[in-house]
């Protein structure tokens, strides 16, 4: 038995957790920059809760609400500049994966005079500003991971950086903030969480303790399937999905992701397909590809989801994720090439080469019916 | 759903983990004090591994090897003085629960000019020195908890302090260090780990994520039972026990313990019965006492241990833990009074009063056969 375990984040999970735990923020300083997108922090009510809490704690704040979907290096550079200008002592990220990931980059860039591309060196002269993460989606798990996934236009994909210092210090997790998500976003992000748990569980880097967190995440997702299908998503289901997303984040904090994410980034970068949906389109063929090597674990996943096999899983995804695109041979060749550049591809339980990736993409996108 | 989750410790688990990860120590400074008892650090080989690693990393060290079994406040005060004198930047605790718990107190007292009794205020002006924990037993879980349990002679019991700052920064967990334990110590400490998992699982403060860690710990202990009984304890079983102990520690980091520990401390303080053994003597009646309130969870525990009921659990403990003492009415009254002073008593899933504690102690120690 050989493994590492470390989650550098303190999770505070539950209804009204921010307002009830404002004191926890006061140790991080007197001035904060809130990093968020243009909408979800406001619509979800999280921004109001945070601002009221900061005022009650006597903490001054400014808001940087220009985080893009799938943020670019320029985008986080602007945020870092803003944090330096306003002399923030710490950063509060509010939103889905994009704002949370951006907040980590902003925290590093605020403390270090460096080019954004240097983030990928994963060595920072000065510790990043402390990061507080408040998710408004239930998928990314970014609130409990050290990872920041940014768009690398130089490499035509998304790519992650992060080390022990980029774990958020605190994750405030309140499921009511996820209620403003429309059905599509709820489903897409839930499938992203499932993908984290599944990929971590089947990773070459899987760990005993990661596995039990993954099993719990998959089980929790399984308990939400019928509610997702029927769009009957009450608070209890919202909490279960947020819990599953958190667990998925803890899993990949130890294992990273594998080829599903590596392939999926292409669909997001080139075709604008939402991240979780892109992963979901790929999972069935991922199970098929790895089945002979990881039969016991994959069967356990099916059992936890109360389905019998990869085909049934595929049918489930077809219901949850409409509008599967079709890809041509050229795109498949390009996407496969790019996927092979991702470090995470090396962690796949079955060794993969470019033609394996091509075959998975063909099965997923060439011969499948368009809905 | 409402819970907090935080494990402030990075776990590095596996054969030769110290020698392979010496670099991880270098960030903590140039001088360390090793805090340990007189024997286990040397006999287990851990001290050699640590000293060689420190030398290779250019870190100077001194050794304080006077930690007593069930350390007193005077004992940790002496260690704190030693750490200040030698200007240690960080503390390395090596051993079972006593040295690891002492190292936390030493780390606080080295950084703060305070009376040891003030440790129980749980507020420290200056952060404790960073703590590195290296267990040589598989039971306490102290390597992943913030708790330091010291003997309070003023209150005639053992009592814990600890906050987020007393989590060890790193736990190096190498099962070979536990091989020098004789059978009795192996069993007693393993039962302590089981007790942590069980008490946390059944605690009023139990959490969803704590529960899955507890279930894994109980399952792992269950897989070791026949090896423990037969004293065929190879490396694989040693690893499983160390893993279970770690999980148990993570569980009680969130939940604390309950009445088993509260009652057990009396047997240790007044009768010198080893800590884990004391808990083991009490678990059967603890199950009986709580059964009506926590039937589902207790049945799950029995199932994980592959036994049918509390009586079978009692028989198992009789095999593993010989020499159950007898107690008189006066002792039982005294122990019950003291148990009711422990904060952890409030966390028991079923509300308890002094006469409940008396009844449990009577059933456990008055009418049971002396072996």
β-strand number of chain A: 8
Q: What value does the average pLDDT of chain A take? A: 95
CATH class of the largest domain in chain A: Mainly Alpha
The quaternary structure here is homodimer
List the domain count of chain A as a whole number.
2
Please estimate the helix content of chain A: 40-55%
Structure overview:
2 copies of one chain form a homodimer. Chain A has helices spanning 17-20, 23-26, 40-43, 46-56, 73-85, 97-111, 183-202, 208-230, 235-255, 259-271, 275-290, 295-304, 310-320, 329-341, 354-365, and strands spanning 3-13, 31-36, 60-64, 90-95, 131-135, 148-152, 157-161, 170-173. Chain A has 371 residues and is α/β, with parallel strands linked by helices. In chain A, helix 8 packs antiparallel against helix 9 (235-255) and helix 11 runs antiparallel to helix 13 (310-320). The first copy, chain A, has 2 domains: 10-177, 3-Layer(aba) Sandwich (Rossmann fold), CATH 3.40.50; 183-365, Up-down Bundle (Dehydroquinate synthase-like, alpha domain), CATH 1.20.1090. The radius of gyration of chain A is 20 Å and the shape is globular. The first copy, chain A, contains 15 helices and 8 strands. The interface between A and B is medium-sized, with 27 and 27 residues.
Furnish the topology, listing elements before pairings:
Two copies of one chain form a homodimer.
Chain A: E1 3-13, H1 17-20, H2 23-26, E2 31-36, H3 40-43, H4 46-56, E3 60-64, H5 73-85, E4 90-95, H6 97-111, E5 131-135, E6 148-152, E7 157-161, E8 170-173, H7 183-202, H8 208-230, H9 235-255, H10 259-271, H11 275-290, H12 295-304, H13 310-320, H14 329-341, H15 354-365
Parallel strand pairs in A: 1-8, 2-3, 2-4, 4-5, 5-8
Antiparallel strand pairs in A: 6-7
